Amino acid sequence: MSNRSEEIKEFIKKSVDWQKFVNNAAALNFSGNKGNFFRAEEIENSIADFSNDKIKFIDGQGRDLYLTEYMEYIEVKCYNNSLYNKLGWKDIIKTIQLIRFRGDNILSELPDSYSRFIMILDKNCGVLVDKKEIKDYIIQRSDGLYLKGCPVEECFELYGPLECNILKSKLDLIINHYNRNMKQCRNRRYEEIKKYAGTISGSK
């Protein structure tokens, strides 16, 4: 794979405080994409929260996160027991749905608009793949495109397995929500000030 792809993977790995992310996900009762969608969105959002603004949460179709420095997108898939079990790292990633077909929009491969990078997260560990690396493992089913049979060892390890202290995880969750709300309040206030300043400067 290209040097740029490897560079981006290393950048993502180093940009996020993965221990805080794991704690936050545990406090949210991580259950993967098939669980509560609000909870899954919160887990994805917290990746951006713990990246020191190097990663942005956008929640688009096939695009959950955005790397501002590299102008690349990341799709996030959260699944219990997808990478790890009681015996350790699995040999093969659990089969994961990448795209759900809607109406007559049937695809045989991931479209160009789909994120270049796919982040696969388990409860306490995570990996990253470049979609160009997994073409041989993408299959078509009646309801969508799936990743099937992909060896874990062919993926880039982001973190794990990490231990989680449940008391600390709940504290991290509270702090995370507080920081995010404060940031949103500051952003709204900034927009209000800009709007007001524009009104004043445009008046006679």
Briefly characterize the structure.
With 204 residues, the protein is of the alpha+beta class. The chain is 36% helix and 24% strand.
Structure description:
- The protein is an alpha+beta fold and about 200 residues long.
- The protein has one domain (about 5-200).
- It has helices at about 5-15, 20-25, 35-50, 165-200; strands spanning about 55-60, 65, 70-80, 85, 90, 95-100, 115-120, 125-130, 140, 145, 155-160.
- A hairpin with a 4-residue loop joins strand 2 and strand 3 (about 70-80).
- Helix 2 packs across helix 4.
- It starts with a helix and ends with a helix.
Keywords:
204 residues; 11 strands
Summarize model confidence as the mean pLDDT.
Answer: 84
- Number of E strands: 11
Principal-axes shape call:
globular
Q: How far apart, in Å, are the first and last alpha carbons?
A: 60 Å
Q: In total, how many domains does the architecture comprise?
A: 1
Radius of gyration: 19 Å
Low confidence ranges: none
Give me the number of helical elements: 4
Strand order of the largest sheet: 1-2-3-7-8-11
Tell me the structural class.
alpha+beta
Strand content: 15-25%
Q: Secondary-structure element order, as H and E? A: HHHEEEEEEEEEEEH
Helix share bin: 25-40%
Quaternary structure classification: single chain
- Major beta sheet summary: 6 strands, mixed
